Amino acid sequence: MGRVPHVAIVGAGRMGQGIALAFIHGGLSVALIDMKVREPDDERLYSERVRLDLDRELCAKIGLGRITAEQARESAGRVSIFGREDGLQALSDADVVFESVPEVMTAKAAALSLISDVARHDIPVASTTSSFLVTELATLIEGPQRFLNAHWLNPADLMPLVEISRSEQTDDAVIDDVVGLLERVGKVPVVCSASAGYIVPRIQALAMNEAARMVEEGVASAEDIDKAVRVGFGLRFAVLGLVEFIDWGGGDILYYASRYLAGMLGDRFEAPEVIAANMASSRNGLRDGQGFYTYDPDTVGDYKSLRMREFSVLLDEVGLSPEYGAALAPVPEKTRRG
After folding, report:
1. I need a labelling partner for 127 at 20 to 30 A (CA). Which of 108, 156, 168, 234 fits?
2. pTM > 0.85: yes or no
3. Which residues bear the site annotation Important for catalytic activity (predicted)?
């Protein structure tokens, strides 16, 4: 997909609009196709509402300083909005198709049937589903070797990550094409197998449920839990990945901490077998030179310094870097207690 591709998005709701915004921001033209059959007047009104929604988002980007007014006008001109029947030619001309209809199997089946009938059979087709496995949906399209899931995080136009899920039938070349396309518009794709929850939603669901459970148990207020996540958990993992951080702290530390928490709070805190296996083979992380990653002793110092610089820059950016000598400054009246 070396040339400038024609992108078609089947489904003009919130997710479809967000994906369209991402591609037009990157300079590509998009056909945004409403899948629902409507009366002519209803179709016109719906298209006008979608156009208004897109214009509102573009205006918001101007307000945020992300684009200029001229760039907003150019971006708006790169998206064409079609009803189901009017969009057939655009679907036929597409070099890649993203399906983004509601998370209902009958709606997915109808959209993928239309794509099979109208779109070229040599192009990638990606569902944006957050609910269905790629292996389930691949049975609904002609040519499952060109099919994959592409899970965008909301807001799709701003969040860099797109999770690509493939089946055993998906061609490597299709993965490469879609990954390359996403990278061209500034996205950061990751690839995973057909597993419920992809990567982020699976981790996120555990964290959100545990946060809600702590509120329920009276461990801390919602405000303090959210503060802890924003300035602790969130900042740390903006620089270090979760698996990478296991290596920094030590797999054995995680193992023993997990054993204690499991005893106090329940089996959900038990460490997986891979942690014990790494311990048995002296793969505890940075201090062993190997863990989930392997660390070259000649470059590990530079690697650690890089991560600490990245963390320092992030703290500066969000205004949380501690000031030298701050404890000697007068205490503002409003922070005193008692």
Report:
1. 234
2. yes
3. 151
Give residue-wise pLDDT tens across range 6-47: 999 999 999 999 999 999 999 999 999 999 999 999 999 999
Q: Are strands 96-99 and 30-33 parallel, antiparallel or unpaired?
A: unpaired
Q: Identify the DSSP state of 266.
A: -
Look at residue 330 and tell me if it is in a domain.
no
Q: Give the count of alpha carbons within 13 A of 151, CB side only.
A: 24
- Length of the chain as a residue count: 338
Gap between the Cα atoms of 115 and 119, Å rounded: 5
Structure tokens at 159: 């969040």
Q: What is the pLDDT of residues 112-170, one digit of tens each?
A: 999 999 999 999 999 999 999 999 999 999 999 999 999 999 999 999 999 999 999 99
Query: Based on the structure, what is the number of domains in the chain?
Result: 2
Verify that 33 and 159 share a domain, yes or no: yes
Same domain, 188 and 229: no
122 & 217 share domain: no
Strand order in the sheet with 147-152: 79-82, 30-33, 7-10, 96-99, 125-127, 147-152, 161-165, 188-192
